[in-house]
From TrEMBL:
Residues in FAD-binding FR-type domain copies: 5-96
Keyword flag Iron: yes
Enzyme class: oxidoreductase
GO MF annotation list: 2 iron, 2 sulfur cluster binding; flavin adenine dinucleotide binding; metal ion binding; oxidoreductase activity
GO terms for biological process, alphabetical: pyrimidine nucleotide biosynthetic process
Record's protein name: Sulfite reductase, subunit B
Cofactor(s) demanded: [2Fe-2S] cluster
Organism: Anaerostipes caccae (strain DSM 14662 / CCUG 47493 / JCM 13470 / NCIMB 13811 / L1-92)
Record-linked InterPro entries: Cyt_c3_hydrogenase_gsu (IPR012165), Dihydroorotate_DH_Fe-S-bd (IPR019480), FAD-bd_FR_type (IPR017927), FNR_nucleotide-bd (IPR039261), OxRdtase_FAD/NAD-bd (IPR001433), PyrK_electron_transfer (IPR050353), Riboflavin_synthase-like_b-brl (IPR017938), Sulphite_reductase_B (IPR014260)
Length: 263
């Protein structure tokens, strides 16, 4: 029987710099995660970290990582041909089949775009998967923008609003993503839509409230939390909020549950 908590050595196929602090690592793997699930990336004698899968293909997975600590700093020292250890996939991903044939609204803040990147690839690549996509994606400043190529491609295929919190950039709006929620035509969707929100906790909180102000049904909103996940199997308790284990019960939650996940 396969040991599902045993890390497997995997070869780094490519490393791409997305921004000053975010890099995307393509790693050889036969794992087939659902959109929105995560893997545990580890380096022996250093540690491991839960990282969402930002893209996937035949025999490979991609992880877009921000250098924020000991493990991720060590991963950033790796190059093409080096080895990372993976275990997973873990957690509950986006309910993709529930989105099929509907209007899909996606709102992201910063690197919150990474956990929905593979889902957006699916929407762009499968013409009839959803009716259309309304994407609002915001970043703190121009230096923090990731996935430049995809953002350009999605602008041709989706209804997009790209925004910077304070900076000005040609073709981009200025302001928080919450300022643009009112531009989503919920009134024309009927009941045939779903909403995905990913970003820092304050951004998700206020985006959720603004969605409700604009008439969105709370039952149709989904959010992804990655709060303090560690072991990925519900044993360490680091990610526990009341009786909820984020690594097991999430990281994707319906808004009706997510709005009560307060420390």
């Amino acid at each position: 029987m396969e040991n599902f908590v045993q890390p497997k050595p995997c070869t780094i196929l490519n490393v791409k710099r997305e921004s000053e602090h975010e890099w995307t690592f393509r790693v050889a793997s036969e794992a087939k995660p659902d959109h929105g699930q995560f893997m545990q990336l580890s380096i022996p004698k250093i540690g491991e970290a839960p990282i969402s899968v930002s893209a996937q293909g035949d025999g490979w997975l991609e992880f877009t990582i921000r250098s924020v600590g000991r493990v991720t700093n060590c991963i950033f020292s790796k190059e093409k041909g080096d080895t990372l250890f993976l275990r997973g996939p873990y957690g509950k991903g986006w309910p993709s089949e529930e989105f099929r044939g509907k209007h899909l609204v996606v709102i992201t803040g910063g690197t919150g775009l990474a956990p929905v990147r593979s889902l957006l690839h699916k929407c762009a690549g499968e013409k009839d998967f959803v009716k259309d996509v309304h994407l609002i994606s915001g970043f703190k400043d121009e230096a923090g923008i990731v996935f430049h190529r995809e953002l350009k491609e999605w602008k041709e295929k989706f209804h997009t609003v790209y925004a910077l919190d304070n900076d000005e950039k040609e073709g981009w709006r200025t302001g928080m993503v919450t300022a643009f929620v009112k531009e989503i035509p919920f009134g024309s969707f009927g009941d045939d839509y779903a909403v995905v929100v990913v970003g820092p906790p304050p951004m998700m909180k206020f985006t959720g409230l603004e969605l409700l102000n604009c008439g969105a049904d709370p039952e149709k909103i989904w959010m992804s939390f990655e709060r303090k996940m560690s072991c990925a199997i519900g044993k360490c308790g680091h990610c526990r909020i009341d009786e909820v284990y984020v690594c097991l019960d999430g990281p994707v939650f319906p808004y009706t549950t997510a709005r009560d996940l307060v420390d």
